[in-house]
Amino acid sequence: MKKIIPFVAYLLSVFVSHRFVTGYWVVGLVFAAAVFAVHYEKVFKKFSVRHWGFAIASTLIYALVYWMADKGWKFRNDWLDMLAGSLTGGVVVGSFLMPSVHAVIFGIDFKTVRSTFLWLVASWYFALFFSWLWQTSGLKPNLDFSLFAIALWQGIYLKRLQVS
Fold first, then answer.
1. Which of 13, 75, 78, 85 has the fewest beta carbons closer than 10 A?
2. pTM of the prediction?
């Protein structure tokens, strides 16, 4: 049971996040719930104002990420869009803000935050590279790389950061 609840929470979070990726107010709240479920033994013993604060922060950070991706800048070059476009900018900002807020609320050391940020950003670029490689090679079937990127990002985050 100790491993089933976190795994199911992770899977649900990934699939709901993918389904509602264009919803400002859904993904952040669902992800916060997954963070709590992954660490359910600690969280549900002592659910506090900090947890509500994290849920609100997660919701607002995802809204910012989506807003940046949706309303942001576009280049006339696919490579530039992939490497530094508004979607990538949003992911990098979210990858910095989420662990930072997590650290402030739950008392995580900033060395862990820094390495988590780097892993999250690297996972995004890995997903982009893998997507490009798959598409240019003409392999079938076409894969949903947004689902892959979400699963990778959330998996790294949930594995690396603890909740108290």
1. 78
2. 0.91
